Amino acid sequence: MRKLTYYVGMSLDGFIAAPDLSIDAYPISEEFLKDFLVGAYPECLPTHVRAALGADAAPNTHFDTMIQGRTTYQAALDIGITSPYAHLRQYVVSRSLTESPDPAVELISGDLVAKVRELKAEEGGLGIYLGGGAEVAGQLLDEIDELVLKVYPVVLGDGVRVFTAAFGVHSFSLDSTRTFDNGTVVLTYSRLKG
Fold it and tell me: Where would one find coiled-coil regions in this protein (predicted)?
């Protein structure tokens, strides 16, 4: 059984982006970039960013499949990129797109939970990277097996929340904590079973 991991950056007050959807407020140091973003999770960088950092040949270490929401995908479309994670199998959750802008990107417009369960049941392969956004993460909250939270040392006050979901208690266990010179802390959690 493959696992679904919500790998996401956030502010101290629980926002993954500013109200205008930007993530410019998050500080990135050389250590954090090299040791974590490129060194530990290179497949979570868009293909064009991997190439710019000289990491385009880095092997996928955790994931071979990516799911993202329509708003997250739009950021790539806005700069003319229709296949932002060409090194992964890509899915975009959308009710507004009727046709994929790229043959390498499959749209999910129907039952998202059923599709994720189908992907998780596949034999072999690496895990599934849930890259955002908040609504998609909220819809998949019961399916998320692992959280990798990059907590940046900033407070935004408003913006896009980590999850948009109805109230409910979902318990996770802290597996690891990693601290970086820029004050960023990466917290990894596994869903508690039962």
Answer: none
Which DSSP category does 150 fall into? E
pLDDT grade, residue 194 (50/70/90)?
Answer: low
Residue at 111 is within a domain: yes
Length of the chain: 194
Query: What is the DSSP-derived secondary structure letter of residue 60?
Result: P
Residue 190 domain-assigned? no
Q: Which class for 9: exposed (0-12), middle (13-18), buried (19 or more C-beta within 10 A)?
A: buried
**Residue 147: strand pairing partners:** 6, 189
Alpha-carbon span 13 to 162, nearest angstrom: 10
Report the alpha-carbon distance of residue 66 to residue 94 in Å, rounded: 14
**Shortest CA distance to 89 belongs to which of 53, 113, 118?**
118
> Residue 27: how many CB atoms within 10 A of its CB?
13
- Count of structural domains, the chain: 1
Instruction: Report the chain's mean pLDDT, rounded to a whole number.
Output: 94
Of the candidates 72, 71, 106, the one whose C-alpha atom is nearest the C-alpha of residue 88 is 106
Digit-coded pLDDT (tens) for 59-83: 999 999 999 999 999 999 999 999 9
User: Is the separation of the CB atoms in 143 and 6 below 8 Å?
Assistant: no
| CATH code for the domain in which residue 120 is found | 3.40.430.10
CA–CA distance, 184 with 118 (Å, rounded to integer)? 34
